[in-house]
Amino acid sequence: LPAFEFRDGKIFSRACDDLLGCAVIIAAFHELEKAGAEVSCVGIFSRAEEVGFWGAIRLAQSKVLPTTLTIFSLETSTPRGGAEIGRGPIVRVGDRLSIFDSAATAHLLEIARIEKIPVQRCLLDGGACEASAYQLYGYRSIAASIALGNYHNCAPNESIDCEFVSMDDYENMVRLGVALVKGPREIAETTAGFREQLEKRAARSDP
Question: Which of 44, 60, 61, 206 is most buried by a 10 A CB count?
Fold first, then answer.
């Protein structure tokens, strides 16, 4: 299979998963540097995700990173739960093992809304990612995924073929990462408006 091809607005490769997550991190740093952004963030590249998050677990156990950090797990995944290739990065509310931090996920969705970055909000319970592992060690975790075609090189006709993603989804994932880093450091109170609406409705029903 070819290492890389670009056609019809899609990236084709023998390895998109999780190589594109690494590419997103590097591209986000390039964009932050170009913008002269005065921010602080850490890019993490860890090994052996498929067999049990070995790299992520060892890093979490080392306490090198303070638990005050919010972990933003990036990956590619088979679209599930209504997600589609080409409709934007998938903000993953959870995976097969756990549900991710609700407030931080809402914060990420609010940043996407403000920056007009198209995203999809889905559970994606077909597998697991490092966000679940980091949560076990006290880290606030969120996750996003690029919808992946031919997951693990398995084509629908049971043949071996390239994995592929939408170039727009990839670029918008970079935008999402940059916007998150450049945005407010504190987790926004994004539920206040919804709570106010419910309280007004409840007040109308009070005797």
Answer: 60
Contact (CB, 8 A) for 120 and 84 = yes
Count of CB atoms situated within 10 Å of the CB of 75 = 24
- DSSP run (H or E) holding 5: strand 5-7
Are 162 and 1 in contact, with CB atoms under 8 Å apart?
yes
Q: 184: helix, coil or strand? A: coil
Burial 143-178 (b: 16+ CB within 10 A, else e): bbbbbbbbbebeeeeeeeebbbbbebbbebbbbbbb
pTM metric for this prediction: 0.89
Q: In what order do the strands lie in the sheet with 120-122?
A: 70-77, 140-147, 90-92, 120-122
Going by C-alpha positions, the residue among 146, 123, 129 that lies closest to residue 77 is 146
